[in-house]
Design brief:
An 8-stranded antiparallel β-barrel has the order 2-3-4-5-7-8-9-10. It is of the alpha+beta class. The N terminus is likely disordered. The protein is 16% helix and 46% strand. The N and C termini lie far apart (49 Å). The radius of gyration is 17 Å and the shape is globular.
């Protein structure tokens, strides 16, 4: 019984610690991240970050076409649907990636699940997940 109690306490503490994890822009920059999940049919997506820009490159090999889109972003400790332009380039740590898409006049909020040397995982605040692998 005591073992079960300690196991449950340990699992609960681990869940709280992982939920509280913050990420830094420096973990995302200087790399190109290729989307590997969910797989896109007839399309490839590669993203990268600068201090102030979230850059998405969409490639359509069968059409021989590439589209590059650039958006301002910042990281936030809290989930938000209101974009604060004054935080771009300044707020460099957080659990959420907050992106402004001018053409739609809309803020998008992504929950950063994990960042490692090889993978970057995010979920849309609605719950759908995307996984990116660092391009070599």
């Amino acid at each position: 019984m005591r073992k079960v109690f300690f196991t449950i306490c340990f699992m609960l503490m681990a869940a709280i610690a992982s939920n509280a994890q913050s990420f830094a822009v420096s973990q995302l920059k200087n790399a190109k991240w290729e989307r590997v999940y969910p797989q896109l049919i007839g399309e490839e997506e590669v993203i990268n970050f600068t201090n102030t820009q979230y850059i998405i490159k969409l490639m359509y090999p069968t059409l021989d076409k590439t589209i590059t889109q650039t958006y301002p972003y910042y990281l936030s400790e809290t989930k938000t649907l209101t974009f604060d332009n004054s935080q771009v380039g300044k707020n460099t740590k957080g659990k959420y990636l907050v992106v402004w898409v001018e053409q739609y006049q809309q803020t998008y909020c992504f929950n950063i699940i994990s960042v490692s040397k090889d993978f970057f995982k995010i979920s849309f605040c609605e719950g759908e997940m995307a996984v990116y692998k660092k391009k070599k």
